[in-house]
Design brief:
mainly alpha, 14 helices, about 300 residues, globular
Length: about 300
């Protein structure tokens, strides 16, 4: 596909490297979300997405006309960005952050398995299925291997796990369906993010109490918007437009390793055996998936 105007670096960087850039930024998402857990979820989602959306201005040479897309494409973009982040931030509040975070990272599995259903001309190879199952087993181990917490706040944890799973489905579907809609410039994602952010802020004004944000809160929200809820979107879109969705989806299993490591480092959660083993299985799934032959 042709590269997007104003995004010259994407013409030379390979899709895997673009995807790894997005993955590295997403490694900080859950840790920042936990650090900002006291901020109402609609407010947090709205402010961060607005910051991320503004990154598209220099990428589009400050020509907002380049953000124009058909209405179905706009609905897909807003639903994907708003739905994924709101569900994830709610999951991180209702379930133990490390477990909810790893469950959320089932979205690479869904990307792999849904590719032949949502994208024409795509079929799975045996290595794709093997890698996807290994990654799924690693994520399942996060829940089943934590008997010490099984009896605490079971109802809340169950809802949190469900929301984390739904957020994974939303992101996988969004990532794949962007290949089904008419081609749009990557800079148009800025419009998706800004509209999603404004929708979130309206929901905050209607449904959530007003809160006062500290200077630290604003710095963290800025980092959230510039990185995992900003630049990562543009890198991810460029990778999907140029690469094999099955291999990129499996490569994304590397994200839980970085993300879980960040949560353990900044939180008070011990790195238990099941989390360590699950991380190894998920990374193994990513490595296995890269052995697949390109093409259908």
């Amino acid at each position: 596909m042709p590269s997007s105007p104003g995004l010259r670096p994407g013409r030379t960087l390979p899709p895997a490297l673009l995807a790894l850039g997005a993955i590295a930024l997403w490694g900080t998402l859950a840790a920042l979300g936990v650090a900002l857990a006291h901020v109402p979820p609609f407010l947090l989602t709205g402010l961060a997405l607005c910051v991320g959306g503004l990154l598209a201005l220099p990428l589009s040479r400050f020509e907002v006309s380049r953000w124009r897309v058909p209405l179905p494409t706009l609905a897909l973009g807003v639903g994907g960005l708003f739905g994924f982040h709101f569900l994830l931030f709610m999951a991180l509040r209702l379930a133990p952050p490390v477990q909810a975070n790893l469950i959320n990272y089932l979205w690479p599995l869904f990307m792999v398995l849904l590719s032949p259903w949502l994208l024409p001309g795509i079929r799975l190879q045996a290595v794709h299925i093997a890698a996807a199952l290994l990654g799924f087993a690693g994520a399942a181990l996060v829940i089943l291997g934590d008997p010490a917490g099984a009896g605490q706040q079971a109802g809340g944890w169950s809802w949190g796990y469900l929301l984390a799973l739904l957020s994974a489905l939303v992101w996988a579907s969004y990532s794949l369906l962007t290949r089904r809609v008419p081609h749009f410039p990557t800079a148009a994602i800025g419009g998706f993010a800004l509209l999603s952010g404004l929708l979130s802020l309206l929901c905050h004004a209607w449904l959530e109490p007003a809160v006062a944000l500290t200077g630290r809160d604003m710095l963290l929200i800025g980092a959230l918007g510039l990185g995992p809820m900003g630049a990562a979107f543009f890198l991810w879109d460029m990778a999907l437009k140029r690469g094999d969705t099955r291999q990129i989806g499996i490569l994304s299993y590397l994200t839980p390793l970085a993300s879980t490591g960040m949560l353990v480092l900044v939180g008070d959660r011990a790195f238990t055996w099941n989390i360590g083993l699950a991380a190894l299985m998920i990374v193994g799934a990513a490595l296995l998936g890269t052995r697949a032959k390109p093409g259908a």
